[in-house]
Amino acid sequence: MSSRKCFKVRAGQGLNGALRVPGDKSISHRSLMLGSMAQGKTRVRGLLMGEDVLATLGAMRSCGADIQLHDDRVTINGRGAGGLSDPAQALDLGNSGTGMRLLSGMLAGLGISATLTGDDSLRSRPMTRILLPLQAMGADISGHDGRPPLVLRGGRKLHGIDYELPVASAQVKSCVLLAGLNAEGVTRVVEPIRTRDHTENMLRSFGCDIRRDQDTWILQGGSRLQGCELDVPGDFSSSAFFLLAGSVVPDSEIRLDHVGMNELRTGLLRIFEAMGADISILDHRIVGGEPVADLEVRTAGLRGIEIPPEWVPDAIDEFPAVFVAAALAEGETVIRGAEELRVKESDRISVMLNGLRQLGARVEERPDGAVIQGRRRLDGGVVDAEDDHRCAMSLAVAGLCCSEPVVVKSVDNVATSFPGFEAAMARLGGNIEVVDAG
Ligand code: S3P
Prior knowledge:
- The protein is α/β, with parallel strands linked by helices.
- The chain has two domains: 223 residues, Alpha-beta prism (UDP-n-acetylglucosamine1-carboxyvinyl-transferase, Chain); 197 residues, Alpha-beta prism (UDP-n-acetylglucosamine1-carboxyvinyl-transferase, Chain), CATH 3.65.10.10.
- Helix content is 31%, strand content 29%.
- It is built from 14 helices and 24 strands.
- Strand 16 and strand 17 form a beta hairpin.
- The two termini are 15 Å apart.
- Shikimate-3-phosphate (S3P) binds next to helix 6.
C-alpha cells in the first residue's frame, strides 16, 4: 500500500473526558470465523469495524458464509462445518497476521482449497511457525520461503497432533486448535508460556469440547459448534494509547468505558503501575463470558524500570506505547526478551526507536529490546510509522509531549485496528490532525 496520510501533532492542553474504544480485534476475528463454522445463528454485538476484521469478513464470505452487518451488530447464519466451500479467488487478509494464521488452520481442518495473501507487510511475515504444525497434521500447505502467499490444497482429512509451541504465540496456538477442531482424534497444544486465550474461551461458548490440563490445551476433534450470542468488549490494546496519553500529557484525566480485561492481555497495567502510573480499575465485571472494566487514568510522573522478560507476552501489542512511556519517564528503562516485536506488522523495535530518536530521545537498540533514557519532554520533528498502526498511534501520543510540532508519516493503517483514533483524541482535547502527504 502506498501511504499518503500523516498525523500533524502539537502539544496543547491536558486530555479530559470519557470514551469507549472500538471492539476487540482478536475477539472480532474469532467471532466471524467461529460463527461461520457453527450451526445456527450467531449474533455479535460491538464488532470492530476495522480493516483487518473487514478483511476476515470478506474472506469468510468468499468461502460462502452468510454474514449480515447492521452497524456494529452482526448476524451469521451458520450452516455448520460443511457449510463452507473453496473460494473462487485468493483470500486477501490485508495487514492481518491474525486473519491469515487463524484462517489457515481453520480452512485446512475443513479440507478447503485456498490461496491466502495480504499486503506488503503481511507478505513479509514468518509463516513457517504455522506451516510446520499444519503439515504435521496432514495438511498440504506451502508458502514462498516460509512467507505468504500460502497455498492450501484441500480435500484431506487432518489428524490430531501433540504440539509444543516453540514461540509464545496465540496465533500459532489458535491455528493448531482450529485445525484440530475438524481433525480426526485429539489435538493437544502445550503452551510453556501462556498467551491470550480468546480462542479457547470462545470455542467453549460455541459448545466445543476443549479443556486445559496444566500447560496443555486438549481438544476433541469433530466437536460441533453451536451458534451463540457474543458481546465484544472494547479493545484493551486500543485503550493503551489513552492510558499512555493520560499518564504523560500534563493535566489529563481520562475514563475508558467497557474495556476488555482478559488477564493475558492487560500486562501493560502491571508495567505502567511499576513505572508509577495512576490508573484505577472500576466496576470489574463479566460481560458475555469476558472480564470487562472501566479504567480511569490521571497524569503521573513516570519513572524508568527494568521490565522483566516474563512480563512481555501479556503486553506484546502494547510495546510501542511502552517505548514512548520510557522515553518520557525519569531515568532508565530496560526492555529485554521482546524479539517477537521484530516480526509484527513492522519491526517495532527499530521503527519505534528510530522515531523516538528523531524526537530527541536517547535510545540504544538491542536485538531483543532497548535501553531508553527518559526525559519529561521531547523535542519534535518528522517521524515515520512505516505503515504500522500501533507505532503510528504511539508516536502521535509522543508528539503531544514535544516542545515542537511533530509529523508522523505513513499512518493510513491506523484504520486496521482503530478507525476514528484522531477524532477520539480530538474529543478529549488532543491536537492530532490528519493531513494528506500529497
Ligand atoms: C493475536 C496474537 C498476538 C498479537 C496479535 C493478535 C491474536 O500475535 O500480537 O496482535 O489475536 O491471536 P502472536 O500470537 O503472533 O504473538
